Amino acid sequence: MINLEVPKKFGALINQAHQAASEVFRPISRKYDNAEHSYPTELDMLAALIDGLNSSGEGGAGAAGERNGNAAKASEDGGTRNGANLATVLGTIEMCWGDVALLLSMPRQGLGNAAIAAVADDEQLARFGKQWAAMAITEPSFGSDSAAVGTTATPDGDEYVLNGEKIFVTAGERADAVVVWASLDRSKGRAAIKSFVVEKGTPGFEVVRLEHKLGIRASDTAVLRFDNCRVPKENLLGTPEIDVKRGFAGVMQTFDNTRPLVAAMAVGLARAALEDTERILAEAGVEVDYDKPANSQHAAAATYLELEADWEAARLLTMKAAWMADNREPNSLEASMAKAKAGRSVTDITLRCVELAGTLGYSESSLLEKWARDAKILDIFEGTQQIQQLIVARRLLGKSSAELK
After folding, report:
1. CATH number, domain at 295?
2. Residue 46 has pLDDT above 70, yes or no
3. Are 267 and 290 in the same domain?
4. Could you please report the per-residue DSSP string of 53-110?
5. What range defines the domain where residue 288 resides?
6. Could you report the per-residue pLDDT of 300-350, keeping only the tens digit for each?
7. Which residues are paired to 196 by β-bridges?
């Protein structure tokens, strides 16, 4: 039976993640927002510490995701589990309370790592598990329609030859490898789309440029090009067979891991904005009273209560999606619900917090204006708000992608 209270056993993890966010991320947050594309060297020691926690089985403070098989093994006795997926989500919330872009800049904590954890076999996990992996899906010809992948992977002996271009690749320059979505046969549609691990230094793999962005400036966002880039066949994640009946399910399984993580990033960022806004309101003499109806309080306090309720709904949906993964329950619907709710909530919450804080919210005297800029990407990447709502509608109505576009 699901219980969405924070499990006591994760108390130490949450405390460690919060301390890292408070003592490492927050002090350098503005520095690297202003120094776009500069690598935050302060993160190297923290990354080593998280690697140690993950190796000892006490991890979850990063965003690398959890191997799907672990949940199955943990639940063989049929009991309810609060496992590594929920731990990772809770740790991500705390770290993004500190700074989203800095978490995305953490070595070996990329979204590509979550993809590898989701679908790699044991041999691949041993080879790639300790690398920092980015995720490359979006192309110049499409944004949220992942089925429109135009990058190709052509079999040639013991290798695949990749050709195509990817844009908006988070950590694309800094990562050790990139998980690239490509089609084995474009005539067979989405069923032929597979993911490949392409390591840095592979001939034909080029970082074309870095993007200048509205938010998450501490994180590098790259354009990548693959020109007759040869990768070993064993770098294909999952099965090479094109199963038309199963369709897109193989690579889409990745999103069941990554979308709750992005939702957790949004929950952490929104909480930071709410806490800072409550402090600013209190200093201005506006107290939020939880024992009084909202309509009998100051208008700013009533707005704050509305935003906090919205945040709580996003948090609970995110925890539910992670809990379901830990308990071997299909969570594709809930992962999209959490991502849609948290992505919309964080943009609304941060912008309205800027309004409530007045001049303090709009200036660089606080981090509120930065958080409002950072928030927008969390409603876009890993599937936009509109795409998530479309996925939810298809699931609830029992429609296919062809029936409901």
Report:
1. 1.20.140.10
2. yes
3. yes
4. HHHTT---SSS----HHHHHHHTTT------HHHHHHHHHHHHHHH-HHHHHTSTT-S
5. 249-397
6. 999 999 999 999 999 999 999 999 999 989 999 999 999 999 999 999 999
7. 180, 236
The answer to whether 137 and 181 have CB atoms below 8 angstroms apart is yes
**Catalytic-residue membership of 382:** yes
* Sequence-distant (≥ 6) Cβ neighbours of residue 37 within 8 angstroms: 210, 217, 220
Nearest to 273 by CA among 377, 344, 338, 348: 348
How far is the C-alpha of 270 from the C-alpha of 264, rounded, in Å? 10
Residue 34 lies in a domain: yes
Same domain, 117 and 166: no
Q: How far is residue 123 from each of residues 128, 238, 251, measured CA to CA in Å? A: 9, 12, 18
Q: How far is CA 118 from the centre of its chain?
A: 13
- Per-residue pLDDT, averaged over 157-169, amounts to 97
Whether 160 is in a domain gets the answer yes
pLDDT in tens, 205-245: 999 999 999 999 999 999 999 999 999 999 999 889 887 66
- Count the residues in the chain: 405
Q: Establish if 243 belongs to a structural domain.
A: no
Whether residue 227 is found in the same domain as residue 256: no
Residues 6+ apart with CB under 8 A from 160: 153, 154, 182, 196, 230, 231, 232, 233, 235, 236
Same domain flag for 329 and 191: no
Under 8 Å between Cβ of 376 and 341: no
Identify the DSSP state of 139: B
Instruction: For 347-376, write each residue's pLDDT tens digit.
Output: 999 999 999 999 999 999 999 999 999 999
Question: Which is catalytic among the residues 66, 278, 369, 382?
Answer: 382
